[in-house]
């Protein structure tokens, strides 16, 4: 695999030089400049953090709670506002690379009139890929994310954001046509529990759509690096596991599923470059 030799240096270097583009239309929070500068320092020290999770690195100067009282289950408190802003402005390179794949996945499995449950809605990067006429229920325990997600909602869809976790949605059985899960199963405490909850929420024949970064093949230098660095990754990147075989968790819950494996090509994503994308039928 290209980049296995010396990929740690190239990864850390690429992240250290990158800053959020700020190209979105939502006004920046007042701390955005501080976040960008501190982000560069963090990537110098913790360059192993993945594209989706490195923005969650705790900032000592901004680590106080924002008063919402919302915490992710089983995880340490962090600044909800800072994390939300980082996810809003720090994911452009990842989302740009994934746009074509997301468009294909959602257009192939989501239809007008569907009821969609999205686990870990975040700032709403998936919303623009849903067809007109769908109703989206987004679970997002970090309320600082909500205004960003609302700003990205196309007018042709309905959106309700709920301050709930993926482990316990609170809905009755078989309420949804589609459950969406992107870049979530790497960081939950129990992916099988989350997947069982997703299956419970699906109607008979409903589909789980997923995109996740996963462990590299056993015996590779990349897998060795993931294994060695994973404890630090979990500590500083919101419990993100670089070496989690998420496809095995999906197999444990769903009998009817399919997925494709692919590798990210953007510079700086080597440690989390192995990805899977696919669907599972309830």
Task: Walk me through the structure.
By secondary structure, this protein is of the alpha/beta class. It has 2 domains: 7-89, no CATH class; 94-220 and 238-281, Rossmann fold. 33% of the residues lie in helices and 18% in strands. It has 8 helices and 7 strands. It has helices at residues 7-17, 32-45, 80-89, 92-109, 146-151, 191-201, 221-236, 246-253; strands at residues 115-119, 135-139, 158-162, 176-182, 202-213, 256-263, 274-281. Strands 3-2-1-4-5-7-6 form a 7-stranded mixed β-sheet, sandwiched between helices. Helix 1 (7-17) packs antiparallel against helix 2. The longest helix has 18 residues, at 92-109. The chain is globular and about 45 Å long. The two termini are 35 Å apart. The relative contact order is 0.16. Residues 1-52 and 54-77 have low confidence and may be disordered. Residues 117-210 form the Methyltransferase type domain. This is Methyltransferase type 11 domain-containing protein. Pfam families: Methyltransf_11.
Q: Can you identify the CATH class of the largest domain?
A: Alpha Beta
Strand adjacency order, main sheet: 3-2-1-4-5-7-6
- Provide the domain count: 2
Radius of gyration: 18 Å
Label this structure with key terms:
globular, 7-stranded mixed β-sheet, alpha/beta, 7 strands, S-adenosylmethionine-dependent methyltransferase activity, Rossmann fold, 282 residues, 2 domains, 8 helices, 33% helix, disordered N terminus
């Amino acid at each position: 695999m290209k980049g296995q030799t010396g990929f740690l240096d190239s990864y850390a270097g690429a992240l250290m030089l990158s800053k959020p583009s700020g190209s979105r239309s939502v006004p920046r929070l007042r701390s955005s400049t501080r976040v960008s500068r501190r982000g560069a320092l963090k990537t110098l020290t913790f360059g192993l953090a993945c594209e989706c999770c490195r923005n969650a690195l705790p900032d000592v100067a901004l680590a106080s709670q924002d008063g919402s009282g919302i915490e992710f289950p089983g995880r340490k408190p962090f600044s909800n506002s800072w994390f939300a802003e980082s996810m809003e402005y720090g994911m452009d390179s990842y989302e740009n690379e994934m746009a074509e794949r997301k468009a294909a996945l959602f257009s192939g499995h989501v239809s007008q009139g569907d009821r969609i449950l999205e686990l870990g809605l975040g700032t709403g990067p998936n919303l623009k890929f849903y067809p007109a006429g769908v109703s989206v229920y987004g679970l997002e325990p970090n309320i600082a994310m909500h205004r960003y997600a609302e700003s990205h909602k196309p007018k042709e869809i309905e959106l309700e954001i709920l301050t709930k976790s993926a482990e316990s949605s609170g809905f009755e059985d078989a309420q949804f046509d589609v459950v969406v899960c992107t870049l979530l199963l790497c960081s939950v405490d129990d992916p099988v529990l989350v997947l069982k909850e997703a299956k419970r929420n699906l109607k008979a024949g409903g589909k789980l759509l997923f995109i996740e970064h996963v462990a590299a093949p056993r015996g590779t230098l990349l897998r060795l690096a993931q294994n060695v660095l994973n404890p630090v990754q979990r500590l500083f990147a919101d419990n993100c596991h670089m070496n989690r075989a998420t496809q095995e968790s999906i197999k444990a819950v769903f009998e009817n599923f399919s997925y494709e494996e692919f590798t990210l090509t953007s510079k700086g994503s080597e440690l989390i470059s192995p990805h899977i994308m696919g669907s599972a039928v309830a």
